[in-house]
Fold:
Amino acid sequence: MKNLLLTGASGNIGQAIAQLFLSKGYKVTAPTRQELDLCDPQNIDNYFNQHSLEYLAFIHCAGYNTLYSLEALKLCELQKTLQINTLSFFQILSYLIPFFKQKKKGYVLGISSLYGTIAREERASYVMSKHAMNGLMQTACLELGSYNIKVNTLSPGFVDTQMTRKNNSLEKIQNLQTKIPLKRLGSVEDIANIAYMLCSEQNTYISGQNIIVDGGFMAGGFQK
Structure:
């Protein structure tokens, strides 16, 4: 059985990833927040000490994002963002590495962001967490490649999700679409398709890469 461990499955992108892998014959393990609290390192330890580690692939889709200026950002908020977005990714991966090494096969994918390669005001905690995720991915690629473990990140651009619709007016979304070369927001299926390619038998030689899926938005430089 091909097994996928997926965090963040309750979000729109996570749901699409889960549905696609299920349709391809995978067993998808998607712990709820009550089962696996990514804010609590001890809870993460407890979960993986009590559950099977026999996975072919691991996708970290869980994420947390808030807006604060540097002056307003509190250390506790920064720590929470880093814990959910990056430190839990590392902690879970550390449990899976021995099994992947034993099988000499594994796929690891972190769902990153455009803010993993650039920055923007009032997003210090999120930017730090995603830059760190990409750095961890590249380091893991170098250390694990000889065991046939492929490690990548995927950075979505602006995707049509409930959160996007909630946080942006229709006028703002329409204006944003004019700045995307493909003239539309990404769909959750666009993201899920690339996630599947990177974490399935389709991926034979991609590792250490941050795959940007943004409809060409970053090709002209980030535009406000």
